[in-house]
Design a protein that fits this description.
The chain has 2 helices and 5 strands. By secondary structure, the chain is α+β, with helices and mostly antiparallel strands. The protein has a 5-stranded mixed β-barrel.
């Protein structure tokens, strides 16, 4: 009986150690090219609702309520960037950034709901 309890305890500790080791490595994911092509802002303004897109350019100014004016020289679009999507990036109007997200069709025209933003 004592031997069975020792084996059970040893097995439980082994499972716990493996679980902690996997957790310590963090959440993984794919790191590599995606299938999104870079669209111009003018093209993004014509895309259908919920289309995933990637745009490159500059954030011109804040419009308040997590919305920003974005341009690449071809046109401007309103981009919604949630506070938790910035990832520590502090963008300026002269900084080139890449934003991926999905098109939101609004009454006033298409907007982009950002998923990620990174400096180029």
């Amino acid at each position: 009986m004592k031997r069975s309890l020792q084996l059970l305890a040893t097995g439980a500790l082994s499972v716990s150690a493996l679980s902690l080791a996997a957790h310590a490595q963090g959440q993984g994911g794919f790191s590599g090219p995606d299938n999104l092509r870079v669209a111009t802002v003018a093209e993004a303004l014509e895309l259908a609702d919920d289309t995933h897109v990637k745009i490159q350019g500059q954030i011109v100014r804040s419009l308040g309520d997590e919305k920003y004016e974005f341009t690449d020289g071809s046109a401007t679009i309103v981009v919604e960037i949630d506070d938790d999507d910035w990832g520590g990036l502090e963008a300026t109007p002269d900084m080139q950034v890449e934003i991926t997200g999905e098109i939101d069709e609004e009454r006033s025209g298409n907007e982009l709901d950002a998923d990620t933003i990174r400096q180029l």
